[in-house]
Amino acid sequence: MLVASKVHRLRSGRFTGDLKIYETSPRQYQFFREYDFTPSRSAVIFFGLLVHQTIEEIHRIALDGQFDSFKEPYICELFERTFRFLSMGNVRPIGLAAKENALTQVMNYFRQNQDEMQRVIQTEVDVSLEKDGYILRGKVDLLLGGDGKLELLDFKTSPRPKESPELVAAYERQLCTYAHILESRRGKGVERLMLYWTSEPRKEDALMVLPYDPHKVEEAGRHFDETVRRIQARSSR
Questions:
Q1: Paired residues of 134 in beta bridges
Q2: Model confidence over 183-222: pLDDT tens digits?
Q3: Is the CATH number 3.40.1010.10 carried by domain 118-236?
């Protein structure tokens, strides 16, 4: 998740919110950001939060070294606890079928990635980059490590896109920017950028590895600059 923080006239918003909405449709951006319309996607939001936050709890257990807790009944308990917590918020809970689907995604990830848990370095890693006139703020879902190298992983609860090169390119720009920031901050090279599509039952389909090309960081920066420039131009009217 990459955020363009408010500097001058640019409003705060997520990359998949402000910048992504504007890239897709300037009219939608006007409705959602300038007129404060609320998109009717509460079920999608709840589902995504449920999967993401349960998986995050699994990673936190790994960071605490509590590998004895890695039993399926306990993971189900974490899932139910997360569901109850989210149900107390303002987002309408999902139905039973969607809840079972979310649990299936969590359990598939848990069963097929236990060997990776000892490589977890940090979860929900905050990153930021100051640009000319705005600040990009982001969050990496998972940071893995080994042999002095870093690996970045972001989770997506939708199916792996079959023919969406523009969408994958947008995620690649996002991850390249994260990698550049973390390399500078931690003094370690980034080896792999990964997307994990939790809707896919098999790990070989869920895991998408993207090449990390440092030269693409500059290209991504120009892309963000241009998108923000257009947003600021609209806001100044």
A1: 131
A2: 878 888 888 899 999 999 999 999 999 988 777 777 777 7
A3: no
